[in-house]
Amino acid sequence: MVARMETLTRPAPGLDFRKPSKQRQIGIALGLIGLVLAVIAGIGNFGAAGDVADGTAGETLRWTFGLSVAGFGIVKLGIAVILVGILVRLWLRVASVKETMPQVKAPGDGTADPNGTFTSAWGKATATTSAPTALPIHKMARTMWFPMLAMGFMALMAGLVLALVASGESNPGSVASWFAWAQGTMFLGEAMLLGGIAFLLGSILAAIRDGGGEVQESVGVTVKTLKMPASAKAFVGLMMVGMMLGVAQFVLYIFVATGSSASPGAWFAWLGPLREVSLGVLLSSIVLALYTIGTALGFQFDRMKQIIGTGK
Question: pTM here?
Fold first, then answer.
C-alpha cells in the first residue's frame, strides 16, 4: 500500500521539473467548483430569507446547507490535490540537490562529526552514518492520506444526497431524521478530508526528513536528522482528538436520526457546536503541522549550508 501511494507523490527519475504541475491545475479547478457551489447556496439562502414569515424557508435552507458544506469540502479536496503536487516537487528538488551537491560541497578535512544526539539551533537532532528509517507515524501518513480523502469525499456526497432528500420531506419527524443523517454524514466527511490533509502534511514532513537523509548519505557525510519536535507531537495528538470528535458527532447524529431521542431539537442545539469543535481541532493540528514544516526546512537549509561550507 505504501509503495502504491509513493508512486503518486514521488516522481520517476528523470522527470522534467519544468513541466507544469497537473496537481496544481486540478486543485485550482476544484477550488473554483467549490466556490461556485458555495455562492449558489448563498444566493439560495438570500432567497429563503423572504420565506421565513410564511414558514416555507426550511425546505430551501436544508438543500442550501448541503450544497454549501459540499462546496467547502470540495475546496478542501482542492487543497489536498495541491499538497500532492507540492510533495512531487519536493522530491524533484531532492533529486536535483543530490545531483549538484557533490559539485558545491567543500573538500573537508577528512574527519566526520561524532554520532549521537546533539542540540541544534532548531531543536534536538541525531547524527548517524546512514539515512534514518521512516518513523511509524510517517508510514501511517503515507498509507492513510488517500483512503481518508476518498472516504471523506464519498461521505460528503452521500450527505449532500441526504440533505436533498430532507428538503423534499414535509413530515416533521421525517425531516428531522433525514436532516440528522445529512448533517452527521457531511461533517464526518469534512473531518475525514481535513484528516487527509493532515496526513499529507505528515507525508511532506516525512519527505523533508527522508530526502535530507538521502542527500547527506549520497555525498558521504554524517547524516544529521532533526528529532520529532514538540509541535509535531502536538500535531499528531490534536489530529487524533479532532478525528475522534468527528466520529462522535456522527454517532450522536445517528442516535437522533433513528428516533432514539424524544427531543431532537435539544440534540441539534449542541451537536452543531460539537461538529465545529471537531473541525476546529483538526484545523489547529494543521497549523502545527505547517509550523513544524517550517522548523524542519530551517534545519535542512542550515545543514546544506554546513555541508557546502565545511564539507562534513
Answer: 0.91
Amino acid at site 36: V
Contact 42, 119 (CB under 8 A): no
Q: Rounded to whole angstroms, what are the CA distances from 138 to 143, 200, 297?
A: 9, 10, 17
Largest CA distance in the chain: 85
pLDDT at 37: 94
Going by their DSSP bridges, the two strands 123-128 and 223-226 should be labelled as antiparallel
How far is the C-alpha of 3 from the C-alpha of 118, rounded, in Å? 33
CB 63 within 8 A of CB 112: no
Question: Is 289 strand, coil or helix?
Answer: helix
Q: Which residue intervals of 56-171 are DSSP H helices?
A: 57-104, 136-167
DSSP string for residues in 122-135: TEEEEEESSPPPPP
Percent helix, strand and coil across the chain, each to the nearest 5: 75, 5, 20
pLDDT bucket at 51, cuts 50 / 70 / 90: low
Count of all residues that appear for the chain in the document? 312
DSSP 231-278: HHHHHHHHHHHHHHHHHHHHHHHHHHHTT--S-HHHHHHHHHHHHHHH
Domain boundaries, the chain: 20-310
Tell me how far apart the alpha carbons of residues 122 and 228 are, in angstroms, rounded to a whole number. Answer: 11
Contacts of 20 (CB under 8 A, 6+ apart): none
Tracing cell 480523502 back to the chain, one arrives at: 149
In tens, the pLDDT along 31-49 reads: 999 999 999 998 887 776 6
- Spell out the residues 6+ positions from residue 284 whose beta carbon is closer than 8 angstroms to its own: 238, 242
Distance CA 187, CA 60 (A): 19
Amino acid at 155: A
